[in-house]
Structures are given as structure tokens and as C-alpha cells.
Design brief:
2 domains; five-stranded parallel β-sheet; Rossmann fold; about 15% strand; elongated
């Protein structure tokens, strides 16, 4: 007959054995479930540039399989250790383990504060950025900068309102027929001289004033705020053109800047950046705002919010007698909507809401060298597509 201590030890061994097997099964099933569609939905489309899904799939699958192999390799050690554990011993072990965890977290936090990566220094460190209390950041007011991007030297100028212009002293004329452009770095013309950007090309070809309100790394809420604030200034508003990329869905969840949220009544509300103790921790900011993963609940939340923002964008433009247009760049070969990897996003945001949008195909040779932003030829393609979508005349 087994002694009580032997019986308890055997029970612990069986429990640990079952837990190890269960953990290995979970890890392997997770690796199997991580296919192209899963990576696109939860990682790439809402968090990263296009074209990297295969690398992500291989990397994430590899990590899960490696973790399963490590657990199997340590199986005997885990079981042997579990057979010797008592509650008193577990309590004595827990204290130093917890202290070690706390010390590790404190060390990582200190390192992040000492040498923070760019994403944690705030998005005003993006090229030419300056903080703004309402939008988070804009272009640096009254500035002209020459920067090297993808092997090109480009000149970027912003006027006193942080609007990209040809020369920093340029100011828009409120009385002229005007098209307002908003969006993120693609719309801003990252890596392009002013004359190469698609708003400048449209202004030249259409003979209408084009004002570029875009900002680097903007979410759709920031793009909307700048647009809605600018609309009342222009007496003859012709159209509003909003660039949208799925990456903005992830940005709309960031709480380290002023942001729009959807109230239970369905109204949009601007709330300040999170400022409690936890939100000031760099580790929390890294995990909450920069971790390249979005779960299903967060996806539903940002789709609902973004739908409301885009719907409001269209309503405000039409209320001013202007034509709203949304532009979605497609990297790679143009395919029917049903074959697009982002079809579920486009249906939710545009098709189901009957919002006017166009897809613009950008082949690799129309992008900046080593970058997903459009080069001069890509900007030409976007400008041509927008001109074709807008009715003629002013």
C-alpha cells in the first residue's frame, strides 16, 4: 500500500503529465490554425505593411512548434520536479519567483526608458512631425526639411498650420474651388517632392485648389478630425478625398494620443490620451499599442468605430455640397473584390454602407525602392484614378 506522500506524489506526476500533453496539443493545434487567412486578419492587414504574410506565417508557426518541442524536451524534468513539490515548498519558491519577475519587468521598463525605440518616443518623431493637442501630431509648422528616403532626397515643407505645401509660406485661399485631401503617409506623399504627390498632380490637371491635410501614421480618426475642422473654411468645396489603408484599423485602437471613441448613443467623441499610471509604463504601451496582433473583439470594435468615422466623413462632405471619395490602394495585381484578402474589411466599411470608394492597383515597380509607399509613378496612378472617379468641372 502506498504511503500518503507517495500517493500525493504520484497524483501530481499524473496531473503534470496530462498538463504537458495538453499544452503540447494546444501549441501544435495553434501552429496548424495559423494559416494565411489568420495571419492576414489578426496580424498583417491591421498592423503591418503588405506582402509580409508568408514570412509572418512561417515565423509564428515556427515559434509555436519550437515551444511544443521545448515542452516535450523538458517533460521528464517537469514531471520529476512536480513529484517533489509540496505546498510549503511551492510557497517558498513562489516568493523569489515573483520577486524575479518584478525585477525583470522593472529592468525592461528602465531599458525602454533609457533607449526607447522610435514607436515609444511618440509618433511626432516620424519625419517632420510636431505634437498637436487635438490631432496628436501634424507636420512641423513653418518648416522646410530635406530628407533622404529610399535613395532619394526630397524636400518637405509645411505651412504655419502643419499642412504640406509647395513652399512653407503658402496658404490656401478659402474662396477658391477646393478639394480637400486627408489620410496617412501615402496621402501625405512620403518620399516624394511636393510636385510628385497626387494632390499636387490633381491640382495641376484639374485646375482646382488641392489642400493636403494628411499626416504620417494617422488613423482614420485623425484624418477625419483634420478634414472636418477644415471644411467650414472653404466656401466652394468641390470634393473630399480620403486615403484608407487597413493598417489604420489597428491605429484607431491606440490610446497613447487623443482619439475618437464611439459612445453608446452612436455619436463620436474625442477623448484625451490615456494618462493613468499603467498607461505611462513603456512596457504597457509596447504591449497595448505596438504588439502586432489584434483579437476578434478588438477587430469588431475598430470596424464599428471606423465605419462610423467614414460614414460621418461622407455625410459632412455631402452636407457642404461636396463629393466624398475614398481611395484604397492595392499592392499587387488587381482582382475582383471577392478575391481580395481585404474583402471582409472593404465590405464592412464601404460596400455595406454604400460609401463611394475606388481600388487603385499599385504594382511593385510603382513603389519606392524597398518601401510600400508609392513612388512618383504610383502617385501618378492614384491621381489618374481619382480624376476618373470625380465628375468633370469645378
Amino acid at each position: 500500500m502506498l504511503a500518503p506522500s507517495d500517493s500525493a506524489s504520484r497524483t501530481r506526476r499524473v496531473v503534470v503529465e496530462l498538463l504537458v500533453v495538453a499544452l503540447v496539443i494546444v501549441l501544435l493545434v495553434a501552429a496548424y490554425r495559423i494559416d494565411r487567412q489568420w495571419i492576414n486578419r489578426h496580424v498583417i492587414l491591421l498592423n503591418g505593411p503588405p506582402g509580409s504574410n508568408e514570412a509572418w506565417k512561417a515565423g509564428v508557426r515556427g515559434l509555436f512548434i519550437l515551444a511544443a518541442l521545448v515542452v516535450l524536451r523538458l517533460r521528464s524534468t517537469l514531471i520529476a520536479s512536480a513529484s517533489k513539490i509540496t505546498l510549503a515548498g511551492l510557497a517558498r519558491t513562489a516568493v523569489p519567483v515573483l520577486l524575479a519577475v518584478v525585477a525583470s519587468v522593472a529592468t525592461v521598463e528602465a531599458l525602454l526608458r533609457w533607449m526607447p525605440p522610435r514607436v515609444l518616443r511618440g509618433r511626432t518623431v516620424y519625419p517632420y512631425g510636431a505634437p498637436h493637442p487635438r490631432y496628436g501630431w501634424t507636420g512641423k509648422p513653418s518648416s522646410t526639411t530635406t530628407a533622404g528616403v529610399s535613395g532619394r532626397d526630397v524636400v518637405v515643407a509645411f505651412n504655419r498650420e502643419g499642412i504640406r505645401v509647395r513652399k512653407q509660406d503658402d496658404e490656401p485661399d478659402p474662396a477658391r474651388p477646393t478639394i480637400l485631401f486627408t489620410g496617412e503617409s501615402i496621402a501625405l506623399g512620403y518620399g516624394l517632392d511636393y510636385a510628385e504627390t497626387y494632390p499636387a498632380l490633381i491640382a495641376e490637371r484639374r485646375g482646382v485648389q488641392c489642400v493636403n491635410l494628411s499626416g504620417a501614421a494617422y488613423g482614420t480618426d485623425q484624418a477625419y478630425l483634420r478634414l472636418s475642422d477644415a471644411m467650414p473654411r472653404f466656401e466652394r468645396l468641390v470634393a473630399t478625398v480620403t486615403m484608407f489603408i487597413p493598417l489604420q484599423l489597428g491605429r484607431n485602437l491606440h490610446d497613447d494620443r487623443p482619439r475618437l471613441v464611439l459612445r453608446p448613443t452612436g455619436e463620436l467623441e474625442l477623448v484625451p490620451a490615456a494618462s493613468d499610471f499603467l498607461s505611462r509604463l513603456f512596457i504597457r504601451r509596447l504591449l497595448s499599442n505596438e504588439l502586432p496582433y489584434v483579437g476578434d473583439r478588438a477587430i469588431d470594435r475598430t470596424l464599428t468605430l471606423t465605419s462610423a468615422i467614414l460614414r460621418e466623413t461622407s455625410m459632412r462632405a455631402r452636407a457642404r455640397g461636396a463629393i466624398p471619395l475614398f481611395v484604397v490602394p492595392i499592392h499587387g495585381a488587381m482582382r475582383p473584390l471577392g478575391e481580395q484578402e481585404r474583402a471582409w474589411i472593404l465590405r464592412a466599411l464601404f460596400v455595406n454602407q454604400e460609401l463611394p470608394f475606388i481600388l487603385v492597383d499599385l504594382p511593385p515597380d510603382q513603389l519606392l525602392n524597398g518601401d510600400f509607399h508609392p513612388g512618383p509613378r504610383g502617385a501618378e496612378t492614384i491621381a489618374t484614378a481619382i480624376l476618373a472617379a470625380l465628375p468633370p468641372g469645378n
